[in-house]
DNA sequence: CGAAGTCAGAATTTCGACAAAATCTCTCCC
DNA sequence: GGGAGAGATTTTGTCGAAATTCTGACTTCG
């Protein structure tokens, strides 16, 4: 009757369902970097044949979340601290460029959306528990929306898609490091400062603040990752 | 006996071979944008089964060169003038950011490689025929290398890979427009100016020149594309 | 004792057939 | 004459098995 019968399981095809699940398993860190992905085991584990599984893996490889070795199957993409550095730099460069262009081109609607996104983000608690950190899915969603809203007026769809992908890869590193990311750091203030600079059309400051925002998180994650993997 | 028996046909797997051929057919414009890609026809045409073909298509879809419609197969990705605009903007933003960082971080080896790449490019003729334009594959290869050399020191592998992808998509639009790209325009001088600014560590000027370089080409292509497709 | 060659075992890749979904066509009814 | 609906056709998505390739251990030779 209703269009969205169930929030889960409404995947039109098995391959896409497997792709989504596998992707989430890699991003959340449940599948360790470098892990060999044996087709037979996966097929059994996810309850699908070889064809959809292979298609999902192929897609993941194209996205950079898996690695393909011809005639030797697939592996979960590596995730070394040294690679994290390059990822952060890519993110900073791409997002700062998009942000500056967004500030240059953004109209009133962009400003409205940005203000709204920040307000919604501030209304929520970052942690579900005030004593120890417990991810708040709603906050995460609003956080994503806020950062997207910042860049959205840049008029470069491919670049935005690229930023989304880097964001996801960064999420993977965060999950791998298991960084609590709840240090003495006023994230809300950082967001407010970035939004303020953007709304003031101060591209230089906004970009610098955004870069700091990412580099700081990156440093935490990198430290934690390095400590645990030598 | 020799490691590289033949320059062609050394594809380890059928799926990758088909992927490469299909990719080239899309990039070169032989397969029109929006064209329906029927699995059976393709399989027959490329001499492969459904499995490798499907895998190749899936990969192309992830790269953005094909479009997937669940339960309705694949199509060649659209290519409208309006999308070209966004592509150019993405390219300019991404490459300028990479170039500026490259100029900031580049060492002596980077300078050497850049000088070398420009020299090799200048040694070749852009057209094989001096009367009417005929693509010179060697020049194209050196041109690619030159632009890669510019960005290579930025230390952001993902961003570089992204730039490569955008470059390919741009090549597709050029092929579709069939732009002769041989107008009264001193491309060599433009390259020289960009290289000079980069070697002088003048990031602002270099980025501005690079942006002009792309926007100018984009304008030509867009005009030709718009004229032909309404 | 070390290195190259060889041979089973395991895994990936590919093929052909089956099932499910979408598109098309033709008919029937308003 | 036009639109809706049922059936046939085409096309996609999936499965299980065959063919090719890689891995690892054992043997043999220098």
UniProtKB/TrEMBL annotation, chains A, B:
GO terms for molecular function: DNA binding; DNA-binding transcription factor activity. It comes from Muricoccus roseus. SMART domains: FCD, HTH_GNTR. Gene3D superfamilies: GntR ligand-binding domain-like, Winged helix-like DNA-binding domain superfamily/Winged helix DNA-binding domain. PANTHER family: HTH-TYPE TRANSCRIPTIONAL REPRESSOR GLAR, TRANSCRIPTIONAL REGULATOR, GNTR FAMILY. Transmembrane segments: none annotated. The keyword Ligase does not apply. The keyword Chaperone does not apply. Keywords: DNA-binding, Transcription, Transcription regulation. Pfam families: FCD, GntR. This is DNA-binding transcriptional regulator, GntR family.
